[in-house]
Amino acid sequence: MGDLPPKSTVKRWLVTTNHKDIGVLYILTSIFFLVVAGVLALLIRLQMLESGGTILGGGEYNQVVTAHGLLMVFWFLSPFAFGLANYLVPLQIGADDLAFPRLNAMSYWLYLFSGLAMVVAFFQGGTHEGGWTLYAPLNVPNFVPRIAEMGETTAVVGLALFVVSVTLGSVNFLTTIYRMRAEGLRMRDIPLFSMSILLTVWMMLFAFAALLAATILLGSDHMLGTHYFTDIHGGSMLWTHLFWFFGHPEVYIVFFPALGAMAEIIQTFSGRRIVGRKWFVIAMALVAIQSFIVWMHHMFLTAINLPIKTVFMVTTVGISLPFDLMVFALIYTMVKGRVRWKTPFLFAVGSLLIFILGGITGVFLGAIVLDYQFRGTYWVVAHFHYAMASSAVALVGAVYYWYPKMTGKMYNEFLGKAHFALAFVGFNLLYFPMFVAWESPRRVFDFQSGFSIWHQIATVGGFLFALSFLVMFYNLTKSLYSDRHVGDSPWAYVGSAEWATTSPPPLENFVGTPSFASGRLNFIGGAEADGGVAESEPATDGGVAASTATGGHDRHADHASWWPLLVSIGALLVVVGIGGQATSYVLWPFVFSLPFFVAFLGIQGARRDGRAAIHNLYLLLSILFFGGLLYVFSLHHGGLAEGFQNASMTFYLTLTGAVIGMYALVGMGYESFHVPEPELSEQWPFEGITNTKLGMWMFLGSDIILFGALIGSYVFIRIQYGWVDFLHDAAYTHKAVWPGLVNTYALLASSFTVVLALVYARRGSRRGTLGFLGLTFVGSALFLVNKSVEWTDLWLDQGWAYNTDIQGSVYYLTTGLHAAHVIVGMLILLFLIARAYTGAYWEEDEEAHSIEYFGLYWHFVDIVWLFLFPLFYIL
Amino acid sequence: MLPSGPPLSLFEARTVAQVSRDQVDVFGDLFLGFLTLGTLVGVVVISYIVYNALKYRDDSPDAEGKYDVEEIDPAEDDAGVARPQLGEIPTGTGKAGGKKLFVSFGISAVIVLSLITFAYVNLLHVEGTADDADALDIGVEANQYSYTYTYPSGETSGTLVVPEDRVVALNVTSCHPGECGDPAEGGPVNVMHTWSSPDLRGSTDAIPGRYTQTWFQASDPGTYRVECRELCGPQHSTMHFDEGIEVLPDDEFEDWCLENGCMAEDELGDWLNRTRGEN
Description:
The complex is a heterodimer. Helices cover about 65% and strands about 0% of the residues of chain A. Chain A is built from 26 helices and four strands. Helix content of chain B is about 30%, strand content about 20%. Chain B starts with about 20 loop residues before the first helix and ends in a 5-residue tail after the last helix. The longest helix of chain B is centred in the middle third of the chain and has 35 residues, at about 100-130. Chains A and B meet through helix 3, helix 7, helix 8, helix 9 and helix 10 of A and helix 1, helix 2 and strand 7 of B.
């Protein structure tokens, strides 16, 4: 499948991998979640009309507050921005799509389905009720009403799924921006919106990995009964560190795209190039880095000591400085400009005003002694709504700004201005009273009577603000059918490349290949922009304008695939089913799906590469494997029939989801999907490698943070407990070192064999490649067998399981996550072996890249073990 | 801790139980300072933005067939500023405007640094008082959904009864009633809460398994509100007590304390005398 059906068909939207389509899907879906979370907000405001509120009970109100926060922060704000980013970044940098189009589609579907899971959670007995910050130990099973345990788990796992979506997206955008820029476009030259997206995805790559760690630990506490957040040595403090290490960069992740859009809009509508562009970019980068060292300002009232508190006060108040510079740059851009008060400009400046209030009141919160009083009050609520909702306002402006480009039509300017007026008044009427009534505690509907009038005004403002969105929906929908056509650009004084193509752009984005080699944009092999010169020396920053060997497109680029959607459907079923199972069942769906994976390798491999002995072997092995698992399952549950009868409906739901997911992943692996790398592009500083290799490195960067957070949690807990006492008090009798040693040797050897496999593949030796890939598999199998012997002894003979004590929790979960990485590696190895058997790595120009990418992953898995071994066996 | 033993000599540093600036004063000063400066900065910056947006507004009609003004031919554009051009490599405006930017940045840096200093000085005072004061030490245990106060004798109370004009130092945690001091292995002690007195400006988190500290000094007798400010369950909204703190004059407090056994009689007398201020 490669060609796209027309836009009027449903199928088109299900299979598309084109960035412009996916951008539109993100924007529309995020608006859906805006409406859901907005209705929840209006419920809050209705409850707050009168102290003591009678519309919702205490637990219900808490669920509404929690879901409002989660949905707005995760499922509205960033996806709204990324819809625009998806559409515009390739256009702005002169690329024809993102680096990994199918992964891009998968990001979208995982996003949609994770959000649907959050909504489903409401109906599974109730969703989380401890606030979007999910503080511990309110988030553990002991404090969740029994009937809501399933919904609670769905919410946590749904959030984890969202993190997967985001991680795929960040890897994608990073690879694209670094390696697919038009010739002559240095990193410092990319438009400010793309620059802000670049910094956003850098932050996302590292911050979300920490959140994934937190949700894995929390999910484990729920589904496996581990003690991370129930034990006082982990507990509240562990959660707050993990969550806020993610949470603070998150708020800049939300804001940065809006900032980039503001900068471009203000530049365009001032008719003046942004003042101090270089410093603006440096300031943005500084904030991105600094955002990772301010998180403890959310913890000033916890048990952290004075020197640390002071450091974080300085970094927090200090982070306002780069923001000051950016604000001034934007202001001075208007000076001596030709300022047109069009709708996008009104929203951009409006959001700037709002953000200034948010920023200033944030500085208040950074002063520790003030924070002692502000914490948990409406000051915080007002501050973060001014800061975060200003992003929404700016992004609304961005939608108006780029709407003509995306649709080819102009919106109604009068309605746009009316929207702004209504929105700006509503916004301030809603949030400013919260500063006045700041002493009412947040998440509380029983407040002192003196504050009533302010909360009532806020409710009026809330409804006005909500109404303003309706004006926008009406305007943008109706304008689609108007006759206000636009050419390449309806705006004066635009600069970036998206305005140099039609509205909307063609599938390949441009006619001809965009190039900045001459010092300005022109198109090689197509129409010239402004009659620019076609040939000139490249102006680069020391990097190489790399060109690929293939001249012209002899292979047609693919744009459509069913697999991303199918993988995501599998994931959705898993997420909504997994919360309903007993601990003894929860891992089995995944275990059972493994032989299915092997069988699919056989079946789909035969279809793609022609049936060979290896495919038959896999089919046979999968049956044997499945039989073996059935045997273990029957032992675990006291008989096969009993085991399956006692399984809940959700067990089968999860199992179905896992099997569908495996089928789709195999299908995606075997699918022939051609993504031509650009012939000529700026690639500094990543020249000389492929897109996929860079993507793998980026992914591994995120995985490093994931393991770092897990190892960090272990170290944190162990230090709190007492480093040596921790081992003394553990419930095992004897924990040997030698199994760890054997495992270390097995993994190191397998890293060696995978390198040899690559060497032989490059030499074209089938036997060598297969032999060493096979040995790598054997090494990893040995690792798992050895581990299962060790765990059988510890668990069944000594009675020390993951839910026995905190020592068991950290040991089994950390090494278990690593073992899961090993299993994933083994699945990929089986795929590589099947492909190598049928000669895939000896085609013309093929350098066995797949084996190389796998090798990188495998070395990472081994290096992680080199940290785990001393931490869990020696020290 | 209430010191016992011989009175200190004149030349030894002596901690006092009455501070000249209590939490209300500190917060009031800080808040006023930040509010003034913040409002000033906000008003100036916002006005400047609106002013410029108005002053440089270009009301020209939209160009024929387009939705925005006609771009001026660069040859005739005498405004002296760099205008964005389609397909350009953006270079910013070079030197023009850079100086203004640095001056503004410099001013904001001065303001920010002075705010940090101002906040830090007050932080030291607040943290120092809790450490140095000859205070009444009370343990606070938060749970779902109330607070229990433990006095030096070990007696507990559901209301925090304190004398006026004395530093009261609170050592706060969260635990199930009856399980405090001995958290169950692997079991949750209670959720996180916050103990907060809006009028007396004492506030700190109550974290299971940890202890946090705060203090206050009440200058007027009466009852004061205590509220929880960390979401702690379905009844969080009602976890507030209008008469959670009762501040009594010295003699009434002495009566209450003796009646309830909040501390040993001679210790109580000593402490009250030692910490009675000049007023």
